Amino acid sequence: MLRLEAATVRFGARAALDALDLEVAAHEIVCVLGPSGSGKSTLLRAVAGLQRLDAGRVLLDGADQRTVPAHKRGVGLMFQDHQLFPQRDVGGNVAFGPRMHKVARGPRDRRVAELLDLVGLPGAARRAVATLSGGEQQRVALARALAPEPRLLMLDEPLGQLDRSLRERLVVELRQLFGRLGTTVLAVTHDQGEAFALADRVVVMRDGRIAQSGTPLEVWLRPASEFVARFLGFDNITAATVDGGTATTTWGELPVPDGTPRGPGLLLVRPTGVRLGPPDSGLACEVLARTFRGGHVAVTLRPERGPALEAECGLRDAPAPGDRVGAVFAAEDIVVLDGTAAGR
Ligand SMILES: Nc1ncnc2c1ncn2[C@@H]1O[C@H](COP(=O)(O)OP(=O)(O)OP(=O)(O)O)[C@@H](O)[C@H]1O
After folding, report:
1. How far away, in angstroms, is 43 Cα from ligand 1 center?
2. In sequence order, which residues have a C-beta less than 8 Å from that of residue 333 and are 6 or more positions away?
3. Cα gap 265→125, rounded to integer Å
4. Cα–Cα distance for residue pair 190/34, rounded to 1 Å
5. Does residue 254 register a pLDDT over 80?
6. 317 located within any domain
7. I need a surface site. Which of 19, 48, 142, 143 has the fewest CB within 10 A?
8. Is residue 40 assigned to a domain?
9. Is residue 40 within 6 Å of ligand 1 at its C-beta?
């Protein structure tokens, strides 16, 4: 449905989008993740027609959008600061798009009622926007974005300002809602939890380019590069030389999954792959810190050689700072990263 071909946007000498290629299929939910300044908003603006391309093309349903103005592209946009019209009631806000498209009053009112049901605010049409909570306003903004039945819905940090528990709930509801409606979605977020929960496919951006694209599981299990791994919060990364079933690293000989290519590379050890036992059972380490993370405890270790290591432990069996432990590594949690300069 959407295709970007070598899309390029420059601000001065800097490319905010750097010959970016991206496709979004009909009914697909794609979430774009990336650090601040990586070009996420520019990408949405370019698709919406709010930002001119310096090179390349945006195609919607195969049609080049170069000469199509923003309001004729049939895409919906919902920004972080959802900017409802404060002087209109909820119904007036949701009806805005259909009214612009000259939809008659009867069908328009029916559509508003239907959408408010859908976003979990039945009967709220006559309420004043100022009387709504942040989460309710977000739902109204979503209903307003859906009202003109856009072929593509674009969300920029859609749940950005809400507290965590509300975000976690809404993200599940959104995914169900989009599934039910068959909406095609391109969303931007800096929150990886949100992206992984919402998306069919995650796209990680860096400096106007795509660093990795894949299902949430693929990206999580096999980050393509050191950049993506660190962006996802993985820090157990070291240089390694793979030979057969093992890798030689500063932490010692580590097992690697079958089929890992031989040669020098970078190795990521997921914290779940660092198993702790008595000091003589593996790589000797001192426990530096213990951080409660809800479902588990993150333990920071200083190994007798090599950089610091993080291990993930159960709530009841995490060692305390100052303890001496032995670390053993599990092959299934070891990933060889793209160690080239481009990957870094
Ligand atoms: N109108 C503009 N004029 C000049 N530079 C701009 C303009 N808009 C964006 N940029 C620059 O382009 C780059 C990409 O910006 P963009 O807003 O797309 O990033 P982002 O990934 O959405 O960041 P954030 O997560 O902080 O919103 C940044 O370096 C930014 O400073």
Report:
1. 10
2. 269, 270, 272, 273, 274
3. 59
4. 6
5. yes
6. yes
7. 19
8. yes
9. yes
CB-based contact 152:4 (threshold 8 Å): no
Neighbours of 173 (CB within 10 A): 14
Read off the tokens for 82.
């959802």
Q: In this structure, what are the phi and psi dihedrals at residue 146, rounded to the nearest 5 degrees?
A: -80, -20
Atom 25 (ligand 1) nearest CA: 36
- Residue 341 pLDDT: 47
Q: Please identify, among 225, 243, 269, the residue that sits at the C-terminal boundary of a domain.
A: 225
Scan for tokens 């793979």, then name that residue: 242
Say if residue 180 is in the same domain as residue 36.
yes
37 pocket-lining for ligand 1 (C-beta < 6 Å): yes
The H-assigned helical ranges of 188-276 are 192-198, 216-221, 226-231
What's the complex ipTM?
0.95
- 111 and 256 inside one domain: no
The answer to whether residues 278 and 203 touch, using CB atoms and an 8 Å cutoff, is no
Pairing of strands 75-78, 152-156: parallel
Strands (E) across 177-225 are located at 185-188, 201-206, 209-214
Q: Please give the distance, rounded to the nearest whole angstrom, from the Cα atom of residue 42 to the centre of ligand 1.
A: 6
CB 67 within 8 A of CB 83: no
280 band by pLDDT with thresholds 50, 70 and 90: very high
The CATH number of the domain holding residue 176 is 3.40.50.300
